[in-house]
Specification:
about 325 residues; 6-stranded mixed β-sheet; 5-stranded antiparallel β-sheet
Length: about 325
C-alpha cells in the first residue's frame, strides 16, 4: 500500500491512503489519524489500511479525492530517529567494514515540494538523493535478518547539505561539510510488497533518477553497488540499543562505480571531475535551482511520487505547523 500525510495545519498531518497510480487518495482518520499511530500498532492498523487501499484501487472508495503531492508533508513529518548511512561506494570516501552512519535532526522534515531556504552567502548547496526505510520496533542486538523483517515502509530521501567554501578543498572538488539542513522526503511511503521482485536481499533493484534544472543528472542503480543492505544498516544501528517504531534509516546518497550512470549529488560529480580532469567543472546549486528525484517501477509507474524542490533564499517567515490551532 501507499501512504501519505497531508498538511492540515497540525504537526503530524492527516494520514491518507494513496492509490497505486498516485491519482486518488482517501482519508484514513476512521482507522488512524497519523502514520506514527499506524507504526505504533502495525498489526492492528495495517490490515485495515490495506482493505481501504484495495477498495481505492478498484475505484470503489466513496470519498476518494484527487491526490496532489504539493499538499503533502513528509510521510512522517517528525520521527523518533533519523540516521543516514553510507552504503554506497564514493569518489569522496569509500565504504568500510561497517556502514558509515550520520545522525540527522528528526524533529521536523521538509515535504516533497517544500522549498529549502538557504542564505548561501558563504556556503555551497547540494542535494543528496537516496532511499530510506521506516522500521517497526527493533530489539537491541537484532541480527540482519530480524532487522530486515522490521522494515515497514520505504521512502525517497533528499538529504540537503551545505559545504563551506575553502579554496584548498575546492581544488579537490569539495568544501568542508558545514551543515545538514532539514531533510526532505518524497510524498508517498510504500510497503515493500509494492516493489514486487524489485525488493529483494534488502535492496531496491530499480533506478533512482535525478534531474537538475530539468536536465538529467543521474540514473543510478540503487542496488548493484550497495555494499550494505538495509537489514545490515538497521542491525548496525540496533547493535547497542533498541529502536522504536517510526525510526527512519537511510542508505546514503545512491552511487555507482560506473560514472556513466551519473550521480545523485553534486559533490560526487565534482570529485569525479577533479579526479579525471584535475579540477571540477560542475557548480553547486544556487537560489532558484530545481531538483527532481523519482523512481519508476518495472511497469514504468512512479512508485513514490516525485520529490520536487526549488532552492529559495532565506528570509521568508517560517510557519510553525499547528500555530493557528
Amino acid at each position: 500500500m501507499k501512504l501519505a500525510s497531508l498538511n492540515d495545519g497540525s504537526r503530524d498531518g492527516q494520514l491518507v491512503v494513496v492509490s497505486r497510480d498516485l491519482s486518488q487518495a482517501h482519508a484514513a482518520q476512521a482507522i488512524a489519524g497519523t502514520l506514527q499511530q499506524v507504526l505504533d500498532d502495525w498489526n492492528f492498523h495495517a490490515p485495515q489500511l490495506e482493505d481501504l487501499y484495495t477498495t481505492l484501487n478498484h475505484g470503489k472508495a466513496r470519498h476518494a479525492f484527487a491526490f496532489d503531492s504539493r499538499q503533502c508533508m513528509a510521510p512522517l513529518p517528525r520521527a523518533y530517529r533519523w540516521v543516514d548511512g553510507g552504503a554506497y561506494p564514493s569518489t569522496i570516501q569509500g565504504t568500510g567494514p561497517t556502514p558509515r552512519m550520520s545522525l540527522g535532526g528528526s524533529d521536523e522534515f521538509l515535504g516533497p515540494c517544500d522549498p529549502p531556504q538557504f542564505s548561501a552567502a558563504e556556503s555551497d548547496i547540494d542535494f543528496g538523493a537516496g532511499l530510506a526505510v521506516v522500521t517497526g520496533d527493533v530489539a537491541k542486538g537484532a541480527d540482519a535478518n530480524a532487522a530486515l523483517d522490521s522494515v515497514r515502509l520505504l521512502m525517497l530521501v533528499n538529504h540537503w547539505c551545505l559545504y563551506q567554501r575553502r579554496s584548498a578543498e575546492l581544488a579537490l572538488g569539495l568544501g568542508a561539510l558545514q551543515g545538514q539542513p532539514a531533510t526532505a522526503f518524497g510524498p508517498v511511503a510504500v510497503t515493500p510488497d509494492e516493489l514486487g521482485t524489485a525488493w529483494r536481499g534488502g535492496r531496491v533493484h530499480l533506478t533512482l533518477t535525478c534531474r537538475l534544472n530539468g536536465q538529467r543528472f543521474g540514473d543510478c542503480d540503487a542496488a548493484s553497488d550497495m555494499d550494505f543492505h538495509f537489514g545490515q544498516i538497521v542491525a548496525h544501528v540496533a547493535a547497542t540499543r533498541r529502536l522504536r517504531a517510526g525510526s527512519i534509516l537511510g542508505g546514503g546518497t545512491v552511487g555507482n562505480r560506473d560514472a556513466a550512470r551519473g550521480f545523485s549529488c553534486i559533490a560526487e560529480r565534482r570529485a569525479f571531475e577533479a579526479s579525471a580532469a584535475g579540477e571540477p567543472s560542475s557548480v553547486f546549486m544556487r537560489h532558484g535551482d530545481r531538483i527532481e528525484i523519482e523512481m519508476l517501477g518495472a511497469d514504468g509507474m512512479n512508485l513514490f511520487g516525485t520529490l520536487d524542490q526549488r532552492v529559495a533564499a532565506a528570509g521568508a517567515e517560517d510557519s510553525e505547523p499547528g500555530a493557528a490551532a
